[in-house]
Design a protein that fits this description.
The protein is mostly beta strands. The protein has two domains: 19-173, Immunoglobulin-like; 181-305, Sandwich (Immunoglobulin-like). It contains one helix and 23 strands. It has one helix at 2-14, and strands at residues 32-39, 44-46, 52-61, 67-77, 85-92, 95-96, 108-112, 117-118, 123-132, 141-145, 152-154, 158-163, 170-173, 181-184, 195-207, 212-222, 231-238, 242-243, 248-250, 255-266, 271-280, 290-291, 298-303. Strands 2, 4, 7, 8, 10, 11 and 13 form a seven-stranded mixed sheet that branches. Strands 6-5-9-3-1-12 form a six-stranded mixed sheet, with no helix packed on it. Strands 14, 15, 17, 18, 19 and 21 form a six-stranded antiparallel sheet that branches. A hairpin with a 2-residue loop joins β5 (85-92) and β6 (95-96). The longest helix has 13 residues, at 2-14. The N and C termini lie far apart (77 Å). The model is unreliable at 1-28 (pLDDT under 50).
């Protein structure tokens, strides 16, 4: 009898689970949100790779009312360890929708979205991205999914989920060591006050001795209380007068995603100081404290030494 129980337990634990199939909620009344889950086509990931697309969600709202998506539950599956993943986060229209979260030991990630609404009859896309650890196990296997309609939490809305039948597995592989960029925040030289073209933050970007980098975007998050049009005409400046980014009309909630034009070269062992300039339109009760919230908020690529311009 004991042997039978042990055999049954063994079979239950080690029979492979089937791949995800199409899933739908049974509710049909009221507002409806259709979520199509698409796997990315990337299969081999180098250790330390950031902003790896793992899922794309196509969301379509019915025409009854706006739909606000409050949270998502994303599952990491496969033979690798969850510790291979440093962070999982959602983005839409170039904006990160929440702070990055590391998957739990069981591979579960709860993503609480900030201000994500779909208009009646509207469609929007959410991309789920992952940052892989520089110490990720070589040949670790990972794939990501949303398993049930209940993993998409929306305001009083019936969710219908269509999921890919075949997971897109990703394997971490050994590759060349990638250098890092560190960020410091030198103090402001003047007190913040209402007016045009004020310095609202200073950044010191420093590369280690491993790689040269070409920086394309920097996303800043305000941990103070200023939001949206409290700051306008935001841009980055190097030196006393050289503008190095496009001008952003205003904050998007509490974030500013600034595009470097042209992309900024940061050579190995080099440091550069950038100023964040903006028109301050907020009252005195509003506060400012800009940070690069997570490493992947600096979007850059490694460039070969011989291609770096002097």
């Amino acid at each position: 009898m004991i042997e039978s129980i042990l055999i049954a337990y063994f079979l239950q634990q080690f029979i492979p689970k089937s791949a995800p199939v199409d899933l739908e909620s049974t509710a049909v009344r009221g507002s409806q949100l259709i979520v199509e889950v698409q796997q990315s086509s990337i299969h081999t990931i180098a250790q330390g790779t950031q902003r790896v697309p793992v899922l794309t969600l196509q969301l379509s709202a019915s025409c009854d009312a706006p739909v606000t998506v409050d949270s998502l539950v994303v599952y990491r599956r496969g033979l690798g360890e969850s510790t291979d993943i440093d962070a999982v986060y959602a983005m839409s229209d170039g904006q990160r929708l929440q702070r990055a979260v590391q998957p739990s030991r069981m591979g579960v990630t709860h993503l609480r979205l900030r201000n994500f609404t779909i208009e009646p009859c509207g469609k929007r896309t959410i991309q789920i991205l992952a940052d892989f650890s520089p110490n990720a196990s070589v040949a670790g296997e990972h794939w990501f999914t949303i398993e049930s309609a209940t993993d998409v939490v929306a305001n009083n809305t019936n969710v219908v989920l269509h999921s890919s039948r075949q997971p897109s597995k990703k394997f971490t592989g050994a590759g060349p060591t990638v250098g890092t960029i560190s960020v410091e925040y030198p103090r402001l030289l003047q007190t913040l006050r209402y007016g045009e073209n004020r310095t609202v933050a200073r950044l010191r970007l420093s590369a280690d001795g491993t790689s040269d980098h070409l920086i394309h975007f920097i996303t800043l998050t305000n941990e103070g209380s200023a939001r949206d049009t409290d700051l306008q005409n935001i841009y980055l400046r190097a030196g006393r007068s050289r503008t190095v980014s496009a001008v952003l009309d205003s904050l998007s909630g509490d974030t500013a995603r600034l595009e470097l034009q042209p992309p900024l070269i940061l050579e190995q062992n080099q440091s550069r100081i950038l100023e964040v300039r903006a028109d301050i339109r907020a009252s005195r009760s509003r506060t400012l404290r800009f940070l690069v919230e997570q490493p992947s908020d600096i979007q850059s690529e490694v460039i070969r030494r011989k291609s770096v311009g002097k």
